[in-house]
Amino acid sequence: MAMVFADPEMLDRLAKSLDSKAGAIPQLKSRASALDVGGHVSGLPAIASWLGDTAKDLRRRANILRSPSESPFDSLAAFGLPPGVAGDPDAGKKLQADLKAILEAQKNGTPQQRAQAVKDYFATLSPAQQAALAATDPLMVGNLDGVPVNVRFAANRITIQSEYTKEAAYLATLKPTDAAYQRTKERVDTLRSFLNPRVKSYEDPNTGEDMKTEVSRQFLVFDPHFGSTADAKSSPFPDGRIAEVVGDLENADNVAFRVPGITNRLDNFNGFTNGGYQLVADANGNERPDSAVVSWLGYDTPELGDSVDPAKAFEGGASLNAFRQGISVNLKPNAGLDIFAHSYGTLVTSKALQAGLTNVDNVTFMGSPGLGPNINSVADFKMPNTKFFAMRAPGDWVSYTQGHGNDPADFKDITRLGTDGASGHSQYYDPKTGSLANMRRIFFGGDAKPMTFTHTSLDDEQIGAAEAREMVGFLHGKIPPDVVVKMGGDLDAAVQAHFAGRIGVKELLLEVHSVLGKHNMLDRVPPDELFGKINDLAGNVAYKETYKAAKGKGAPDFVAIAAGRAAEHASEGLLTWATWPVVKLLEVDRIANDVNQFGDIIDKGADEIGGHVKELGTELGKDGAQIYNDTKDLTGGLFKDGGNVVLELGDTFVRPWNAGENAGDIWKIADGAKDKIFDKVPDIAGGLNDAKNTIVDKGGDIARSAAETGGKAIDKGIDIGKGVVKFFGG
């Protein structure tokens, strides 16, 4: 069952059709009169009036859907909450303060303890008070575990309406040619769809008939300002944090969390959450009344470039663990809990399980790039009471490449499920696939189709998959993980610009070339080794393809093997000849890159040494100025004292009777001079010592910089020499 929204365009088309039929009625009535059967069509005017009124009502509904606008009271009423005192700001602020005090008291508690305290507090409030609190602080209430889920749904609907109004106003300021227009429009359209009803399919419990009805969408988490901004030039808004619930979460016997992978954001959330609508449906497309699915986009998902970095998986895993513990207070005590994780979301789930997420019945990994380098079997999780399943569809290159560790589909102690009808990386939830049927069997228990299993090898699924995995392993052995992460970060801006249409393939390739050069990829993976490996793997693929084709035509095994070997040798020979000029060009590129880096080393070293020399001059200037001032003060004082002594001696010579008094003055002057010497000489000595230390320190820095620069330059010079020798076949 696909998620179905009330579609304003569809309503417009239907209204147009009704108008057309109403417009034809006068002509029908005229023809009936001409045929003298007017009495038989006397009801046509009433039908025309009904058609016109209905078309008008449909257009009114379409306009509402295009620009939803409701008050907080309407949002509260949508989930059964009375407005009551919701319009009283004083009542809301008092309740808000009480709730914050409870959270402060529980700031060191576990997620479950905090959620229980919140639940206990809300149990003391009337529905009107709960509504007032939701209206006063919808962002906090809507994202707080322990709050009754209908109150969270209402609070988040208030926030969604507010955010839609703000972002729709911003979109109105943009032109279709603006860089931010397209993604902003997609985001505004998505926010609008959150406010519009969806069509729910269900089985009437009394009659057993298939029924449809419009219901409000239920958001357990909504924070539009959470996380990073995927591409600031395409959208000024962060990716957002969202979780949507399908079903009666607080009364469900079966609860599932769905964890997504990379490039999932608010603007494309509907594409992700649609899988939740598929999962909760039975074979007839009706939602199971005993089950609830939470499509949890509760972490900052990576984009393409930073998907090689596990950092966001650690953060997401901690968030998933906290969410599971917190929401447990709102679930039935005996409710089953399953996790269905896709792509990078399997790594997030792995980190959550390692962080303490243990109260889970079943975990299903699909399209996994690996669960981390430390997880190579189910036993590594140390969760004997949890069942683990894995799926890998044919052609799922994310699983084949194993970017984050071993593929769980290959674990010896995991149950690997079939994916009949699904292929590639993104079809696991498609209707009528074996993968979706198996997920429903896990989720519902014995009421769905029996599970199917598979044990296919990489070659069974996709010839070339094993070689791709070997190639990735070869590159991982050459490139340290931290360099891979840095390269991914450097490339992401260019990748985003390309997908946003700001740069073409040529500019993207130039940026890739620049990043490869920056991280010395041609030194880490020499061109001859790289293409030698490619040639070997291509030969393997040629052998397998030819062998398979020969066997498919009924050839005996020895004939198929011979044909395969011939194709392998031909492929290797042809590729060696074809790639020789490419290797040589890359060797020239490598030499040029090394020469540029040699120049950068010299320039950087010269700048560093020059900086040290400048600092030395500045410090010596300061020390010299201090010594000069201290010396000037001392000599000036002594010169003045000496002059006074001469004057006193002259006075004694002229007036001998003043000899005693003059002698006393001379003694005082001498004593003062002694004090000046004792004061200033240590300062002068200290200044000289500071100058000496400055020379020693900065001289050492200069020597170290010179030595490092020289060493790096020599190493890079050797690389250049080796490159030249290799280019000429040495």
Which features does this protein show?
alpha/beta, 730 residues, 8% strand, 22 helices, eight-stranded mixed sheet
Textual characterization of the structure:
It contains 22 helices and 11 strands. Helix 10 (269-279) links the parallel strand 6 (254-259) and strand 7. It has helices spanning 8-34, 44-66, 72-78, 89-105, 111-123, 127-136, 138-142, 149-171, 181-195, 269-279, 311-327, 344-354, 397-401, 434-444, 458-461, 465-478, 481-499, 505-518, 521-524, 527-552, 557-654, 659-727; strands at 4-5, 198-203, 210-215, 218-223, 241-246, 254-259, 291-297, 336-342, 362-366, 387-391, 415-416. The mean pLDDT is 82. The strands form 2 sheets. The chain has an 8-stranded mixed beta sheet with strand order 4-5-7-6-8-9-10-11, sandwiched between helices. A 3-stranded antiparallel beta sheet has the order 1-2-3, with no helix packed on it. Helix 1 (8-34) packs antiparallel against helix 2, helix 3 (72-78) packs across helix 8 (149-171) and helix 8 (149-171) packs antiparallel against helix 9 (181-195). The chain is of the alpha/beta class.
